[in-house]
């Protein structure tokens, strides 16, 4: 039975790496995958991991129809034994419905990867639809850590080095950016709620929040 699996976690927890590993393991056994992404930091039509690995992918912009693309590919004699879809938080709910249809009507496994919530702790529409439709939700096992040592569960956005809670939902970017750039930092819920990034914690070094990690 084919499945729609949603692999999720914070930024920088290894989702793209896992996507590339799944692709590697399956293609090494002669299976053929169809790889999609949207707005990867490395550019259009690339699925990249911070470990330095990357592969070509089909860019799934707004209006792209996953189901129609797969049907056209198969009708033209192409093969697709599984689908990998990275940065799935950026997909529209309709596109996630199309991925579910790929599973149900074409009987192809779909492995989707994405962050669940944005910098305001709100669900991305694509992630919400994946949570609603997935056969299985897998939270990544390699924990990203907050500066305090707790498991990071939330994504913070920083502008000019300060955490912000207002702005456009989508701003492509990375962790560990220079202070003047828009950047991201993963935090535990407590420090996200208190808007305490690593830099803010350093600045408030006398706060009990910055007791050393045990
Ligand atoms: N220099 C490094 N050495 C070892 N592991 C690294 C290094 N840089 C990044 N990583 C690993 O890569 C992970 C990020 O992987 P990536 O697939 O790009 O994340 P995601 O897609 O979830 O944002 C980090 O959590 C870390 O485990
Ligand atoms: C929290 C948050 C993130 N983004 C962007 C930033 C990155 O380009 C991607 C996440 O990529 P990763 O491979 O999981 O690190 O999402 C955003 O646009 N809005 C946000 O609120």
TrEMBL record:
Molecular function (GO) terms for this protein are: thymidine kinase activity
What's its top-level EC category? transferase
Q: So what EC number does this one have?
A: 2.7.1.21
Instruction: Kindly state which keywords UniProt assigns to this record, in alphabetical order.
Output: ATP-binding, DNA synthesis, Kinase, Nucleotide-binding, Transferase
**Which reaction(s) does its UniProt entry say it catalyses?**
thymidine + ATP = dTMP + ADP + H(+)
Query: Which Pfam families has this protein been placed in?
Result: TK
Record-annotated membrane-spanning stretches: none
Family, according to the entry, reads as follows:
Belongs to the thymidine kinase family.
PANTHER family from the entry? THYMIDINE KINASE, THYMIDINE KINASE, CYTOSOLIC
Q: Which NCBIfam families match?
A: PRK04296.1-2 (NF003297)
Q: Spell out the protein name for this chain.
A: Thymidine kinase
- Source organism of this protein record: Streptantibioticus parmotrematis
Question: Lineage, please?
Answer: Bacteria, Bacillati, Actinomycetota, Actinomycetes, Kitasatosporales
